[in-house]
Design brief:
Layout: E1 10-14, H1 19-29, E2 34-39, H2 42-54, E3 61-64, H3 72-86, E4 91-94, H4 110-137, E5 141-145, H5 158-177, E6 184-188, H6 196-201, H7 217-225
Parallel strand pairs: 1-2, 1-4, 2-3, 4-5, 5-6
Bound molecules: NADP nicotinamide-adenine-dinucleotide phosphate.
């Protein structure tokens, strides 16, 4: 392992089967953290798990959960399980996201709004809310992956864009309300990365101008080690 600056800390990573979620899992666990790999596809999560074990990282955990189908009670169950089996939680890294399709807002029907807002906004909020007591006990952090392409609200980013803008507001309010508990909640914006979401949004884009997924490691580690900096 690189070093053990996150030894004895535990982080839950949503979208851990994805490109940046997988990088986040590797980054934190190679610094000694125990990571809980959350996602909806067990096979993909198992392959992340195997790679971490092979790299000598602390034994990770897998927690399958589909943000589209999850109910409030499921997040409560998760909180209990984390407390019982891992003794608490130091942070959440919210990487899961579903882009849907780029389109004008008027082209999104009710079912699509509900589905995409559940995955990209309501799910992350309910998950955070359920785990907040654990994070309060560890004066931990909550990190939401933002998207610079969406900015503060650019055209055609649809329900995904609406969710990213709303999550940034949620992160600010959460931090403000938990200042005295020393909980930090912030948005981490990785920039344009060569990954499935980017390729779906910009199918014809030249790949040379994009950063590699691993390029986020240093910045992500920095905010995990010292979220207030
Ligand atoms: N790549 C970029 O340029 C870029 C730029 C800015 C921000 N970001 C942000 O970075 C984060 C990670 O993006 P990425 O590039 O790593 O994308 P990715 O590889 O497509 O990963 C997305 C992850 O979300 C999971 N997910 C999707 N729907 C889900 C659901 N219903 N329930 C649970 N998990 C679900 C996916 O699971 P499956 O593996 O099962 O599909 C996957 O693990 C996202 O929040 C994205 O907005 C990316």
């Amino acid at each position: 392992m690189a070093s053990e600056r996150l030894k004895d800390r535990t982080y839950l990573i949503t979208g851990a089967s994805g490109c940046l979620g997988g990088v986040a899992a590797r980054t934190l666990s190679l610094e000694g953290a125990t990571v809980v790999l959350m996602g909806r596809n067990i096979k993909k999560l198992e392959s992340v798990y195997d790679a971490l074990e092979a790299a000598g990282a602390p034994k990770p955990a897998i927690y399958p959960l589909d943000l589209e189908g999850a109910q409030e009670a499921d997040y409560g169950t998760l909180a209990n399980r984390l407390q019982e089996s891992l003794g608490g939680l130091d942070g959440i890294i919210h990487c899961a996201a579903d882009l849907g399709h780029l389109s004008p807002l008027s082209g999104i029907d009710g079912d699509r709004w509900q589905r995409l807002l559940k995955i990209n906004l309501l799910g992350p909020i309910l998950l955070t809310q359920a785990l907040l007591p654990l994070i309060q006990r560890s004066a931990g952090s909550v990190v939401f992956f933002g998207d610079s392409a969406v900015g503060e609200g650019k055209a055609f980013w649809g329900a995904y864009g609406v969710a990213k803008v709303a999550l940034a507001g949620y992160a600010r309010i959460l931090s403000a309300e938990n200042e005295s508990a020393k909980i930090l909640s912030l948005v981490f914006t990785p920039g344009p990365i060569r990954s499935p979401i980017r390729l779906k949004a910009y199918p014809g884009e030249a790949l040379q101008g994009l950063k590699n997924p691993e390029d986020i490691q240093e910045a992500l580690l920095k905010i995990t080690l010292n979220p207030s900096s």
